[in-house]
Write a structure and sequence with these properties.
The complex is a heterodimer of chains A (527) and B (387). Chain A has 527 residues and is α/β, with parallel strands linked by helices. In chain B, α14 (359-367) links the parallel β16 and β17. Classes of the chains: A alpha/beta (527), B alpha/beta (387).
Chain lengths: 527, 387
């Protein structure tokens, strides 16, 4: 039985706490009285995931028939799936998507379905390379579909292949991939890494266009999502659900959602998911060996080492059927793994940011992504109220180099150079620059033909942190490149001690401090 | 009289070259520039008058000379020893005057004048080593005239422009650099480019921004500036967008919404004014200029090694912009510059004044103006003894 997450109160006997720090780590001594929130240990995986998948497909939840009865010869079947933004790090083969789709395809073949297409629902994310696709769906599926043009990547700028399904009562456009919408059956396969994922959000972000996304990927929506990791309290999800119901009325959807446990790092990095006082001699040796080695290699090589990590996380549940009924079960399974109870807010929230987030698989966690990972994702990993009080301070640890992947994130560079020099205020940014970037023909060309995130995607990174920017009084980045940190309107600090001293200027002396020991991921249930 | 004098002294010039490659402006300490008591220059001939400088600016070309970075191109068109200073507002029998320093056929007593001078294009005069004067392309580089960094000098009457009443000395001392900028802004001629880029935001760059905004009226004026104060002034003087120098290619691409072709912007700016004059700035300029567009070298470039393939491929016009005279509109550049200095309040660009005694500090300040939040550093001769 895995141990649940818990909150440690630091005292004089507490060993230094591990902070992720990009492609490296730091051991930091937190002041006595600080709290450290630890994630739960990985919950037990499904013993036979393939059997569980078959069971889910044959025993759907909600208003849905078993999958085989929805399949028949002559039908048009589309299988859409999450892209490589989840899970993180990419999981060891076979990926959940491969397992599920292989079984779905067996059932489709048995029913005589021969018009089948697979679509990577990557929304405005970059296209994936062949190697990345093979890793995700497996060689068998890739070789059977990709050479024939039947494994495609959603193109949100291919207007000939988008359909306006309708509009919600609030006027929100429901515009989706034509193949998916005109199919007799749309099967969606997801990997529900965190509570934000899945449900109607799968289709309404992965298969839509800028026109569809802008109704919920905006500053106002993000500021009113408290938090977007808690769908019932998320304005983003409210909008997405409204859109999703319009789609569900127009297309038969069979949703298959899977969850994974938090067995995040392979054995060579086992110390990353242990509590420090439980480190064995081998863990300590691993930590020092890895840390010292990383100090000696150039950042590019360190990045390459880290992006080679394949996570041993395992499937913990699978549910299929009608979207909302499926997702209700999925959330329960996510929460079973992730929820940690925390009492009260702190003056200062500290976090160590790792090398990877959803938007830099095999890429660089550039400064905008640092902001998004810290103030977007980590800050919002709460239910109830934020871990830090209104006007408090967030301290993030990350190298935050002024470095961007020129192929993957071209508009990010321009956003960083040209937008943030004028203003860091999300609403002003949205009003003055978003449309221009979103419709820039060059970014559109790179998104469609190269491996670039869409021109507007950089804006979403900033919006993702809009709630945190509104909530906190100051953001400090420990170990970050000063000019990159300042460009974002944050303050650089050399050490955690310096950062805590700087924080006292905002929150007063002897502040209460909470540190989130993440990843592995958890959601703080703050009361 | 007291004057800062620049003598021919090769060992000291070499020392300045070496030292200044490490510390800009240090040429004033180790190079051939000296503060001295010297005889006032004699009047070279009829039409010449004696004037007494009030303010005299320190220009980028002066700094190049002091730091041993000048091109050898200048060797035959200067004469030693000379008193630097060609941005001058001075007292004269006519009242306060600004000096138009080019030593063309008129001041040199050459009759008939060359075809360029006859057409009013005195900046193009190639007789600058001939006539009644020692060689010198301008006052401030000629042994016979003295220069602005002194308490007294001579100038030809044709070089003097009376300062309008109400114009401050600070605004008046900016008229000469403003005239360079106006002349540069008018180089693209009748073409009215939609997007214009001004690279660099020192004195020349900022004056060029103001001149381009006034005379070219582009749809979008992008400027590159290194320092925060420069960025602020660039916006105030008419730039729509200001970016850091290393970001100019991406900025032009985004604003022109055009593709990148390698490192080049596909459909970039119609005109680019390079007010930096380094190999890097010229290459940036070529990369962001649209096919058949124009790059105007406003900053003195010196010897640079650049890849001209882009210029050839995009059929770019690379032109220089030196000095002033009479523009294609028939107006005298200095008249336009007076208007610009007044309307754009260019006097605000004068950031610091120094006495001649403190010339080393002044040169050091001017050589590091941007990083110290300054633009134009000038010598203030109004309180000098023996003036």
């Amino acid at each position: 039985v895995s141990r649940p997450g818990f909150v440690l109160e630091v005292d004089r006997s507490t060993p230094p706490i591990l902070f992720h720090h990009g492609e490296g780590f730091r051991l930091e001594r937190l002041p006595a009285g600080s709290r450290v929130v630890y994630p739960a240990e990985p919950v037990a995986p499904l013993k036979d995931p393939d059997a569980a998948i078959r069971h889910a497909l044959l025993n759907p939840v909600g208003d849905s028939q078993p999958l085989p009865s929805l399949l028949h010869a002559g039908m048009k079947l589309t299988i859409a799936m999450d892209n490589q933004a989840v899970p993180l790090p990419p999981m060891q083969r076979p990926d959940n998507r491969q397992r599920v789709i292989e079984i779905v395809l067996d059932m489709a073949a048995a029913a005589g379905v021969d018009d089948v297409e697979l679509i990577i629902a990557h929304g405005l994310h970059r296209r994936q390379t062949e190697a990345e696709l093979r890793h995700m769906v497996g060689d068998r599926i890739y070789d059977a579909f990709a050479p024939h043009g039947m494994l495609t990547q959603h193109d949100a700028e291919d207007h000939d292949n988008l359909i306006l399904v309708g509009r919600t009562e609030q006027g929100e456009h429901v515009e989706l991939n034509k193949r998916a919408v005109t199919s007799d059956l749309l099967i969606y396969v997801n990997v529900n890494l965190v509570a934000m994922d899945g449900g109607h959000k799968s289709t309404m972000t992965g298969l839509t266009s800028y026109r569809g996304l802008k109704h919920h990927h905006n500053v106002s929506g993000m500021q009113r999502s408290r938090s977007f990791m808690d769908p019932p309290s998320s304005e983003l999800h409210n909008s997405v659900w409204r859109q999703g119901r319009i789609l569900a009325d127009a297309v038969k959807i069979f949703q298959i959602e899977t969850t994974v446990n938090t067995d995040t790092f392979p054995s060579s990095f086992a110390f990353l998911q242990k509590r420090e006082w439980e480190w064995s001699a081998r863990d300590r040796a691993s930590y020092f060996g890895v840390s010292k080695s990383l100090e000696r290699v150039p950042p590019r090589m360190a990045r390459s080492i880290f992006h080679g990590i394949k996570s041993p996380q395992k499937m913990t549940s699978v549910q299929a059927g009608e979207v909302e009924a499926v997702h209700k079960l999925t959330l329960e399974n996510v929460h079973r793994q992730h929820l940690v109870s925390v009492e009260g807010q702190a003056d200062v929230l500290t976090m160590g940011l790792p090398y990877v987030g959803p938007y830099n698989v095999n890429s660089i966690l550039n400064p905008l992504l640092v902001m998004c990972l810290g103030l977007g994702y980590f800050f919002n990993l709460y239910r109830g109220k934020p871990l830090v009080r209104q006007g408090g301070v967030v301290i993030m640890s990350h190298p935050t180099r002024w470095e961007f992947h020129p192929v993957h994130h071209p508009s990010y560079i321009d956003f960083f150079e040209q937008v943030l020099t004028e203003t860091t205020h999300p609403l002003e940014i949205e009003k003055k620059f978003e449309e221009d970037f979103a419709t820039d023909p060059w970014y559109i060309h790179l998104y469609r033909n190269s491996y670039a995130y869409h021109g507007v995607h950089a804006f979403y990174m900033w919006y993702w942190g809009a709630h945190a920017l509104q909530h906190v009084g100051q953001v400090i980045i420990v170990g970050g490149e000063p000019r990159a940190v300042r460009r974002m309107g944050f303050k650089p600090a050399s050490t955690l001690r310096d950062a805590l001293e700087m924080a006292e200027d905002v929150v007063g002396r002897n502040p209460s401090i909470t540190h989130i020991h993440n990843p592995p991921i958890f959601i703080a249930d703050v009361t | 009289m007291r004057a800062l004098q620049f003598r021919r002294n090769l060992p000291r010039y070499g020392a300045a070259m070496v030292a200044a490659s490490v510390v800009p402006g240090v040429g004033a300490r180790v190079g051939p520039l000296r503060l001295a008591d010297v005889d006032e220059p004699e009047l070279p001939g009829p039409g010449w008058v004696r004037i007494r400088p009030r303010l005299a600016g320190i220009c980028g070309s002066d700094l190049s000379t002091i730091d041993g970075k000048s091109s050898r191109y200048f060797e035959p068109i200067v004469s030693f020893p000379f008193v630097p200073g060609h941005e001058i507002v001075a007292d004269s029998d006519l009242g306060r005057v600004v000096v138009e320093p080019v030593l063309s056929c008129g001041p040199r007593g050459i009759e008939p004048p060359c075809s360029f001078c006859a057409a009013g294009r005195t900046g193009n005069c190639q007789n600058i080593a001939l006539g009644e004067l020692e060689p010198g392309l301008q006052i401030g580089y000629c042994a016979d005239t003295g220069g602005g960094w002194s308490t007294a000098m001579v100038a030809h009457a044709s070089q003097l422009h009376v300062v309008p009443e109400g114009m401050s000395d600070e605004a008046a001392v900016m008229v000469e650099p403003a005239a360079c900028a106006v002349h540069a802004a008018l180089r693209p001629g009748a073409d009215q480019p939609e997007t214009v880029v001004v690279m660099g935001a020192g004195t020349v760059g900022l004056c060029t921004i103001a001149a381009v905004r006034r005379h070219l009226r582009p749809g979008t004026l992008i400027a590159s500036a290194k320092h925060p104060d420069q960025r602020k002034l660039a916006l105030e003087l008419g730039a729509d967008v200001v970016v850091e120098p290393g970001e100019v290619r991406r900025a032009v691409r985004r604003i022109s919404r055009s593709p990148m072709v390698g490192d080049s912007v596909g459909e970039g700016a119609g005109a680019v004014f390079d007010c930096v004059g380094t190999a890097g700035s010229v290459e940036d300029a070529l990369a962001i200029t649209q096919p058949r567009g124009q790059v105007v070298l406003v900053g003195m470039p010196g010897k640079v090694a650049i890849d001209l393939t882009g210029l050839w491929h995009k059929e770019i016009n690379l032109v220089g912009a030196y000095a002033y005279g009479v523009e294609a509109t028939g107006e005298r550049t200095f008249d336009l510059a007076f208007d610009l200095a007044r309307d754009a309040d260019l006097g605000r660009l004068v950031s610091a004044t120094y006495t001649l005694d403190r010339y080393r500090d002044a040169i050091d300040h001017a050589a590091n103006a941007g990083s110290r939040g300054a633009v134009k550093v000038v010598f203030d001769l109004r309180g000098e003894r023996n003036r």
